[in-house]
Design a protein that fits this description.
The protein is α/β, with parallel strands linked by helices and 198 residues long. The chain has a single domain, classed as Rossmann fold (3-Layer(aba) Sandwich), CATH 3.40.50.300. The protein contains five helices and seven strands, in the order E-E-H-E-E-H-E-H-E-H-E-H. The model has no long low-confidence stretch (mean pLDDT 92). Guanosine-5'-triphosphate binds next to helix 1. Its cofactor is Mg(2+).
Length: 198
């Protein structure tokens, strides 16, 4: 299914999103974490979601269908350090919050964090929101190619321990991922197939 992905539409607000039928999975995380790149890697289509070296590339809620209009991936704008006016940032945060908390078709969140800077301020807030809504979260520690195997593994284990200590490990899972090397793709595929039952 993932290689049948097509761009559907972009919406600035929850009210303008497509009908809430079927199931969708969103890709969330700080600006520049690699959300759009991960969608492109997963769907084997380097041009599907727009990526950029400059944080703040993705500015709307972007929908992609997977062959079937009732199966969707959603690329969200990043939070954190987008160089946009504060009023605009507040507007995005509000729209994202509404999308995450109210969207009926949302079955899971892929939460991306740069493996070199995991669990930053708003990342924990995202996890808490999802857990409160009983929604599964799968964390991708992205750009794993930027670290040696040892440090990457210890970051992974530290985050697993953190999730266990916080007693959210039944809903929240974590893996290493690299769009550049296509590492961790099978694991991500399996999680998404489980959530979307495809
Ligand atoms: P916003 O839309 O601004 O929130 O960013 P995003 O999270 O969608 O990030 P995007 O996919 O646009 O990637 C940001 C930058 O990181 C780009 O220059 C990518 O080429 C780079 N990048 C993404 N994934 C990887 C990876 O696995 N390894 C390396 N080395 N670079 C990556
Ligand atoms: Mg993006």
């Amino acid at each position: 299914h993932f290689n049948k992905a097509r761009y559907l539409m972009s919406a600035p607000t929850l009210a303008l999103c497509p009908p809430e039928t079927g199931v969708e999975v969103c890709f969330a995380g700080r600006s520049n974490a690699g959300k759009s790149s991960a969608i492109n890697t997963l769907t084997r289509n380097g041009k599907l979601a727009r990526t950029s070296k400059t944080p703040g590339r993705t500015q709307m809620i972007n929908f992609f269908t997977l062959g079937d209009p009732d199966l969707r991936l959603v690329d969200l704008p990043g939070y954190g350090f987008a160089k946009v006016p504060l009023a605009m940032k507040r507007e995005w945060d509000k729209n994202m919050g509404e999308y995450l908390q109210e969207r009926q078709s949302l079955v899971g969140m892929v939460l991306l964090m740069d493996v070199r800077h995991p669990m930053q301020e708003f990342d924990s807030t995202m996890i808490n929101w999802a857990v409160d809504a009983d929604m599964p979260v799968h964390i991708l520690l992205t750009k794993a190619d930027k670290l040696k195997r040892g440090p990457a593994q210890s970051t992974l284990l530290a985050i697993r321990k953190h999730l266990k200590d916080a007693q959210v490990d039944d809903l929240v899972s974590v893996q290493l991922f690299s769009s550049l090397k296509r590492d961790g793709l099978d694991q991500l595929n399996q999680v998404l197939q489980g959530w979307m039952q495809v």
